[in-house]
Amino acid sequence: xxxxxxxxxxxxxxxxxxxxxxxxxxxxxxxxxxxxxxxxxxxxxxxxxxxxxxxxxxxxxxxxxxxxxxxxxxxxxxxxxxxxxxxxxxxxxxxxxxxxxxxxxxxxxxxxxxxxxxxxxxxxxxxxxxxxxxxxxxxxxxxxxxxxxxxxxxxxxxxxxx
Length: 162
Fold this sequence. Notes:
Elements: H1 16-24, H2 29-36, H3 40-46, E1 67-68, E2 84-85, H4 87-92, H5 101-130, H6 138-159
Helix pairs in contact: 2-3
C-alpha cells in the first residue's frame, strides 16, 4: 500500500537503515529524492552501497476487503484455520517452503559436489572398460613379435623347398 511522499528538507545525515525502511515502505528512488530534497543522481550514489545495491521497494497490495478462510480444511498454507488475512499478517507469515540464500547456496554446492563425484566415477568406469585385461610391458610385446616373426620365417622356409 503506497502513500504519497511529502517533499522535505535534506537531513544532515541519511542512513542506510533509513533507506532500508523506505524500501520496506514501498518508497521508490524518485520518491526518495523528493522526500529527502536531493537530486536523483545522489539517490543513485546511495544505492551503490553494498547493502542497498540491487534493492527495490516492496510492493504490497492491500485487499479492499477482509478475506476469511471459512473452510474445514486443515492448515495448508501456514495460516491457521479461521484466521483472516490482512496486510499485517503478511509480515508475520513465514512460508515453510521458503529457504534462505545461504541454504540455497549450500544445496547448490552439494548438488555440484555430487555431480562431480558421479562424473569421476563414470570416468573411472570408462577407463576400466576400455583398458586391456592383461597388461604387457613393451619388452614383452617386442619379444612376442620376434617369436611370431621367427615362426613365420620357418613356415616360409618349409614352403619353398623343392
